[in-house]
Records
---
Amino acid sequence: MAVTRLLLMALMVTILSAGLAHATDWIEERVVGFKNVKALIARIEDGLSEDKLDKVGADAQTVANFAARIPDLFPAGSGQGGKTSASTDIWIHFADFSSRAEEFRRAAETLAHAAETGNRAGAEKSFSALRSTCKSCHIRYKDLF
Ligand code: HEC
């Protein structure tokens, strides 16, 4: 009896820690992805001022591809168990969170298109629109500590 209980407890601990390891993987993957986005945004800004629109277009496309994955990178249960600044509001308002990710993706696509077609004025305008989508999501869904 005692042995059975011990085995059950060991099994539960294994299952729980597997769950935590899983959450940690999601957190790591998305934080690495967002840091890469930050670096790409800096590079896009340089590219715009140096008029290297082909590079801007490619980088904006990379940002759009990441943006498309955002909802999948925040599965239920991945808001704890690691070092994360994801707000629990994400899972309370997941439809709104996902639509902000979609807005972000669309803004990046618009920038990519403007840059690829050599439309510099359009690229600059869509770059500032793209940046404002970062802040509007962070204000609601990223904890500040
Ligand atoms: C749809 C919402 C959303 C959009 C849009 C978004 N972010 Fe984030 N971002 C988050 C969330 C949520 C986290 C926290 C992830 C975690 O810690 O698990 C995060 C984390 C980050 C991080 C990781 C390091 C840190 O400060 O915690 C960086 C850097 C970042 N975002 C930059 C950006 C930039 C730059 C943009 C726009 C070009 C952007 N993000 C757009 C939601 C968003």
---
Amino acid sequence: MIADLRPEGTAPDWTLPQNWSAYTAQDHATWDTLFARQARLLPGRVADEFLAGLDILRLAKPGIPDFDELSERLMKATGWQVLAVPGLVPDDVFFDHLANRRFVAGNFIRRPDQLDYLSEPDVFHDVFGHVPLLANPVFADYMQAYGLGGQRANGLGAIRNLARLYWYTVEFGLVHSAQGLRVYGAGIVSSFSETRFALESDSPHRLGFDLRRIMRTPYRIDDFQQTYFVIDSFESLLETTLNTDFGPLYDNLADADDIAITAIEPHDRIVSNGVQTYHSGSFQAAAPRDGLDLSATKS
Ligand SMILES: [Fe+2]
């Protein structure tokens, strides 16, 4: 559980000025190192919509982006903006921002010795990982719908179920494309090691997107995922979300057991049936995962 005490110096909505001029040369160099590594790795592995977002928002410009400049471009594309927060925010604050097309991003960057590991989402995870897809009109609408859904779920005691949808799409989602599987979740695209693991390892399961199934599936916050869910398209993800009556679904889920993290269910659409050797200890020398985001796990 994250403390709900608002940090000093933040506004009532938990935002604060990014204070861009306070970043050091080392901070910008850390961003550039991470950016260059992912820019080399992602083409051919990430959804085209993500690469288009990098272009639209001119994120290849060196250094940590200035949120005001970034918001100006994003506002023109989809009406979203990016605001700085000092760290994780409570659920209700997070949902309110999303519902109003505001994405809140940590304004700090990891230390140079933490390139592959961090315990809280930093500006690289939040901006490089999340913001490019916010320049896509369909995904932008999905994120707002998620925020509105979060506000309703809060009143229905169903945050735990809904957080799994965020986790398995916004953070760790895969998508079918004409050229094959692609990553789009921010936790993957901001992580050098999980980008390859999610697509290329024979360890994890990859299953077709199923909203109710996802809401019954726990997830890992400490390591690579053991199961990834694959959407057919961003359009279909948005459509499913908008067309689902979540109230009865939550009622129904209240009586349903969780599905074990490694299980394959009879109705699963199997994209790949993972051997699950990574998590059974066969590859313990692998790098720890990065891009960890607890924003959907603190309930
Ligand atoms: Fe995230």
---
Amino acid sequence: MLNYYTDLDNDLSADVEAMEDAITTMKRLYALAEEAKIGSTIRCPTCGRAIVKTTYHKKFSSTKCKDRYWNLVDDKRRARAIAMGGRK
Ligand SMILES: [Zn+2]
């Protein structure tokens, strides 16, 4: 039983780390998309698809990707709060 919980704990830590890596990459792509000039090719921070920046505020390939990006950032905050709260 104790081993089960230890393993579960390790798996959760790995997930949080993997998620942090993914979100770091997404944030970098977001910053690049933000700085890119209109008409240049950017990468959607969420799905990585190459898209042409057609308007000043365009940063995502779709509204779905935009929503997903912000949801993931929020999830990360929640995951970190849980991880820190569970640490002894
Ligand atoms: Zn996308």
